[in-house]
Amino acid sequence: MNQHQSSPIVVIGAGITGLSIAHHLLAASDREVVVVDSGDVGNGTTPAGAGFVAEWSTVIPHLGPQAYALQKYSLDFYRGIHESGRDVHFRGNGNIVFFNHEDTLAAGLAAIAAGPCASDRNTVVSAAEIGALTGGAVDASAVAGGVLMPSGIQLETGLAIQHIAEGVEQQGGTILRGVTMESLEIDGGRVVGVNLSTGHIATDSVVLAVGAWLNAALAQVDWKLPLVPFVATRFVTEDVGLSPDMPTLQGKDFPLWIRESEGGFTWGSTHGAAPAHRLGGTWNALGKDERWRQDLVDAMAADVDRVAQVFPKLAGAQTIREIQGMPVYSVDGGMFVGEVPNTAGLFAAGGDNESGVSHGPGVGRLLADLVLGRDPICDPTRFRLDRFDPQEYPDPESVGQHYVRGGVGFIADAHREPMPLS
Q: 20 to 30 A from 237, CA-CA: which of 35, 161, 201, 376?
C-alpha cells in the first residue's frame, strides 16, 4: 500500500478508463486525484465506441471469468447512472450475437456452450425471432440464428463519460484539460513525480490510461506491451424508423456491430478499420485533422450494400455523422491492467480489444484496488503486464503476424499483405 498519503495520485488519460479509475480512487480513499489529458474529457477513442455493454465472456469464451467479473460490475455501474436519473440514453434491450450461416451457427453455439462462462440466462434465437426482436430491421432470410444476451444494455458513450467526469470533480478530483505529460520522474526504480506541460507534480503513484499511446508512454521506463492499435470508423444515419426497443447486434460471420440511435443506425464494420502502423503518419496528436482517414470512410461507404443485405433499412439511408477512433488489440485478446513490472508506483491499463466501454468501470475498480492495496474485485493475474516478454513482440506488426499465424479473424486479414512502403 502507498505510504505517502499526502501526495496525489496522477491519472494520465481522461477517457472512459482513466476517469473510471479516478472515480474509484476518490470513492475508496482520501487521496487527492489529478487527471491529466492533452485534450478534453472523452477527446480520444471513447466517443467512437459502440456504446453497448454485455456479458461478453458468456459468448466469447477466451475472455474468461476474470473479465466476466469486470463486465458484470460495469453493467451494474451504468445501471446505477441510469437509475440516478441521469440521461445517458440508456436502454436495457439486450444484445444479439448473430450468424449468417448454419454451419458457423452450429460451431459458434457449441463453442459458447463449452465456454467457462456459459450462461443459462442467454437464449438461442432463430432467424425469425431475430427479425421479430429487431422490429424487422434484420431480414430474417439473411441470417441463420444467434444468441440473445438479455442483460445487455446500450448508452451514448459521450454522455456517460461526461457524467463520470462531473462525478470526479464533485468528489474533489481535479481534471487538467489540454495538458500533456512530458516525462516521468523515476528514482531507484520508483515513480517520484511526473512532469507536465504546466509544471511538475511530486507523486508516488501514476496511472497510464492513454489507449493507443500506451506503449509510447511506457517507453520512458523501457517497457513494451504486445498491442496493435487500429483506426476504426463509425457511421450514424438519419432516422429510418427503427424501434427504440431493438437489441444491439454483433455479427460473427462478417464482423460488424450495429444499434439503434434516435431512430437511425449507428454502426461500424471491419471495412472501415485498419492497423494504425500501416497507415503512415505520426499518430501522436488527437486532432481530427491530423489523423482523419478518408480512405477508411470511403471503404465503409462501399460496404453499405453488403450490410444492407442483412439490414435493409440501411440501403439509401443518409449518413449524418462519421466518427473515427483508435481501439487497441492485444496479442492474446486479454487486457493489461496492473503495475508496470520494472517501476514501482507506475500502473497501466490498456489493450481493451474494442471493449473499453464494456470493461471501463470494472477496470477502474480493479486498478483502484491495486493502487490502494485493497483486495481486488477479481484475480488480476490474467491481466498482468508481464505475462509476455517485452522482446517477444517488439512492434505492432509482430502482433499482427501472430494473428496471421493463427489463421482467422479480421486482425489477421489486415496483416496478410506485405507492409506497405513508407
A: 161
